Amino acid sequence: MARCRCGATEGVRVYPMWPRKLFLCRSCAGEHFKTRRRQETARLLAQYGDMDQAARRAEAHHVALRADTERPDLGVCTTRAPLAGRGAGLACTPQVADDVRACLDALAAQAARYFRDFADQAYRVFPSYRDRQRARGHALRADQRAVYALAYDVPWLRRLYRDRCAYCGGKAEHLDHVWPLVLAGDDAPWNLAPACSPCNLSKGGRTLGEWLPGRLADLTDDQRTAVRGLWRTWTAA
To answer: How many CA atoms within 13 Å lie on the side-chain side of 132?
Structure first.
């Protein structure tokens, strides 16, 4: 019969924690994982150092991102064939340009919140096994491309966005590098946003200005209205 470290035998579950298994009752499991979570966030806080400085770096990143997105030779609207159906008339219009800027503003506000509220809130959010897989996979890709990397907390990122895709408002299943890794984008909190599978896979190595107008054109009117509302909410938070 499995026995918890406190001696209890009722309600004991097995937790496969490498390199060994843990046998814990519900009470001990709660305390164990809360303590472990606080240790994880404390290590990240130590890496971040001065949070004001980290927040300023996040702000500088988004200033540069917006400036590059709005370069005259690139523009925020990509050349696109005339659209038919529900996306008709959306390509290369002032509204689309405003949408790209609104998305960038929302991402910048969320990046600032990541550092501003990290110490007080991040430890309350528990990671899943998939969260740890995402972090390891991104770290490996960043190392292969020799880009700037700063550790980040996946569950805290997900909580900031309430598991919503930053681009269409759907259910987020991936983490996207806003400025792609293939273009030497940072693997850091300020360059990450949750994304659904269709958004993440269709965006690929393109910048937001190159990709977002076409993606918005593929959404329904209700979906576009909903995601614009999300952007306004995140920007105002």
So the answer is: 7
Work out the average pLDDT over 174-193: 92
74, HSE (Cβ side, Cα atoms, 13 Å)? 15
Three-state DSSP state, 160: helix
SS3 48: helix
Residue with token string 């293939």: 182
CA distance 63 to 114: 17
- Token duo for residue 97: 């340009």
Place of tokens 């994880």: 40
Separation CA 102–CA 91 (nearest Å)? 16
Q: Residue 7 is encoded by which pair of tokens?
A: 């001696």
Query: In 19-152, where do the E strands start and end?
Result: 20-24
| CA distance between the termini of the chain | 50
Contact 216, 90 (CB under 8 A): yes
The answer to whether 4 and 25 are in contact (CB under 8 A) is yes
Look at residue 29 in the predicted model and tell me its pLDDT: 83
Q: Are 25 and 155 in contact (CB under 8 A)?
A: no
* Mean pLDDT, residues 170-178: 94
Residue-wise burial string across 90-110, b where 16 or more C-beta atoms lie within 10 A, e elsewhere: bbeeeebbebbbbbbbbbbbb
Write down the pTM of the prediction: 0.80
